[in-house]
Amino acid sequence: MEKFINFMDSKVAPIAVKIGEQKHIKAISQGMIGLVGIIIVASLATLVQNLQIEPYQNFLMNTAPGQVIWNICQNITWGCLNMYAILICGAIGQSLWNNYGNKGLEGAAIALACYFVTIPWMPEITVGEVTEKVYGWMHYDNFSSVSLFTCMVVALLAVEVLQRFTKVKALKVKMPDTVPPAVSDSFSKLFPIIFTVVIFSILTFVITVAFDGKSLSQVINYLIAAPLQGLSSNIFAAILIPMLISFLWFFGLHGSSIMGPIIAAVLATGAMTNMEMYSAGITDWGQYNILTPEFLASFVYMGGAGCTISLLVAMFIVNKRRHKMMLSLAGPTSIFNINEPLIFGFPIILNSMLFIPFVLGPAILGLISYLAVDWGLVHPVVTSVPWTTPPILRGFLATGMHWTGAALAAFNLVLGVVMYLPFVKLIDNQERKAANEQLNSNSKDKIQGVS
Question: N or C: which end of the chain has fewer CB within 10 A?
Fold first, then answer.
């Protein structure tokens, strides 16, 4: 392992560092890190709402104090998690604007304005059997993580276009010297802002006409989702589905939300068939479907997409002191399969050091899990379990409280740790090296200052 780490340190790390310093990728990382607090409070609220303890849920649903708690948490979820795409749009836009050396809030403003331009302002709404166009109606999917990737793309493109236009001297509006600098600077970008918004308005019109009224976000999701329609319950799907979900997440696209409806449509029938056979007392386990949504959740998505609970364990093993803050913040929520604090806070998104274990690791776990059930080593999944059920316990319950379900989940969790360990060690080495270089640089500056 030491040779592998040295190879990664000398060959892969320099490339990854160079990629990480690229302005647009850096803007995405900065934007997401800036919103870690928002994600954490949203995750905690989700956990409080969905903690699957029957007396506790009865308290929330059937008592006045419980309803107060539930509504307060729902307000947080609505404002922080369901609106996260809008928040990230402004944050990334402003980060990229600052990375170009600009001042002011034009980055966030142009990113948000251009994204709002892409949202249909008179969509068709169906209520019962009546369908009609409603002015000003916008579904919250336009603001939630479902549209996260679109918001990122629009933010980067909008700021990039604005930045290019601001470099054209002919488009600058010069104000008299008596005008305050803040006002003068704002007016100097007047025409670049106008042209940027007009370009996105034209683009939106073209997309609306070409795709029968669909929004830019819908088109992007459709183009990604359409090729996945051919997935079915087989070993290849057990490998491909986890890998694609992690791949989408790696680039900031909410893989679970995008692929969720497709996976449900493809695998739900098999899941319901398993439940019906189990309730009928059929014990010929060879008749049961192997790949179901609960199969993936119990044996692959432990702690969330990418089996990130294994990443947390690897962080603890490598350097629990260095990762103390992230472990304390992301650990409690990851136990209940809420891994946004880790995905956005580490961050995992666009972190080239973690691409292999985060994207390819789940595919390996899917393969092993499928073969384990197919060969009769592990009991098939026969029921559905609340999504906040902790790993290992979930595998136990999903297989009808069979010990082999818990054993497979535990084995996969440990295997995930083994896959994450060398890469976490590499990241730790890079952080140490950067800290030492900074310390040496500061020491040289002090010596030169004294001399």
Answer: C
